[in-house]
Amino acid sequence: LGLVIEAGWVAREDVCRAASQLLDGCKQAGICLEMVRACMVFPPEFNDSVDRYGTKGAALSHISIGLVRQLVDQVKSQADDSPIRITCDKHGGRNRYAALLQHHFPETWIETVAESRAESCYRWDDVEIRFRVGGEAELPAALASMTAKYLRELCMGAFNSYWLREVPKLKPTAGYPVDAKRFKADIEPARRRLAIDNRTLWRNR
Questions:
Q1: Model pTM score
Q2: What H or E segment, with its residue span, contains residue 144?
């Protein structure tokens, strides 16, 4: 799919053309997109999760599997007996997910099918979930990643717009580690003046 990006945004006609190509390809492959769901996690909630679970990785895993729980419940509520297959990208270097899954699905027994560096697979009832290295090679995980990245960019746009109003001539940030440190220093006087708690702006891990 070819997209022409101008001034950080994609032209509407390019989005429509790419969407049409995607839908045509899905139709030819017998695939139907039913829904797209995402969980927005802002610094206060993220920091609370890290405090609760101990590490950034554990917090992200609990948040991700919590969303899986919501989606599984939603699909099952539609009274469709079709098996559910879930593909996730691996969470960092983690290879074992049974305990996490058992925490979020306590009413059933989680069967460990395989656990390896390349892929970890689990089953319960009519559900199978796989955590893969390079999981974005599969369409559902790729679309999930694209959705998350798009939402992140929207949030960063709003974040930069706010601080540009408060700090004249401020250079915007993409939010990644090295430049984020520069940005944090640049807005520090304004943050103090506005009495904004650092915990609402920055993650603690």
A1: 0.83
A2: helix 139-166
